[in-house]
């Protein structure tokens, strides 16, 4: 009874309606109930439908989130189009979002109803015995494997789903996030709690793409001032690599894409040279090397095309050039190059989520945005509303003129 009286007091306080509802439903243990809501369900390859789904209460160490905004990422399209070998149907896609905690399961600490959260597809368990989260090796990577197995199978850590359709049939989770739904359930170790004032529509971009590009420049290759950089592919990820490189003081930045419409934005973010491979009759790596003396210090593939990955490596500087694979290749694709490229000092590496540890390192990025140190608004080229807006966002992303389409529910 005391808990009920406490909830009534909280609900009568001057707090936002969403937050009051979250407190009523979630702060009293055991009172969370299944929620019926809209979701865009991927029934099969290129088959995305808006349906009513039931979202179960969170289990132990789980959090149910009310999704405020979702930014469409190319990885969602990649899976929807059937190119992802781990893609499962039916499932609820989406993994770039700004959300509010609706209720928490048993054992959750540090999160409460009403908190703003960015779900992160790379979890951070933070347990002292996790060599991926703690030094000496923990400082090298963000790839905590705590829930990797179940996340890849489209289920929660206990092996079950929190989504069912109108017929009571199970719907799979996606990347541990599933934000094409008005409500979702995620593991608590996948939740990055952000400031109370964070604008969730803009900050949703930091759930994947923009963070990945910035982190590839800052964390994975750790580029330094005065260096040269080449970025292949000028979507939101590639442009964020350019932005991050400029913020680090790179002296020369090559922006490479076959769509010249993207060059204006690239220049605004810091590109010094814009190169269209269609303008040349020889391999683009030879073109880039010819525009330098020995190649480029740091190169990034943001296309997912394995031939472009090779080109990025082969225009890296002789002796010390480093090339980072950022784009996700289609199922079954392999990369190749002549071993001599590596024998002569080049390094080939890759990145996931830009090396950022979600729970501890995403919130400072949002602090930087709110303080004006990190610009994000320019990535949002399209806006839609309601879960149905995800279908429109898919069409927009295929148009070639869309960096990020943000859907507000």
Automatic annotation (TrEMBL):
Give the record's keywords alphabetically. Metal-binding, NAD, Zinc
Q: Which cofactor does it need?
A: Zn(2+)
Q: Which residues form the Alcohol dehydrogenase-like C-terminal domain?
A: 236-367
| UniProt KW Ubl conjugation keyword | no
InterPro entries with a match to the protein in the record: ADH-like_C (IPR013149), ADH-like_N (IPR013154), ADH_3 (IPR014183), GroES-like_sf (IPR011032), NAD(P)-bd_dom_sf (IPR036291)
Keyword presence, Metal-binding: yes
Per UniProt, residues of the Alcohol dehydrogenase-like N-terminal domain are 59-194
Origin: domain of life? Eukaryota
Q: Which Pfam families match?
A: ADH_N, ADH_zinc_N
- Indicate what this protein is called per its UniProt record: S-(hydroxymethyl)glutathione dehydrogenase
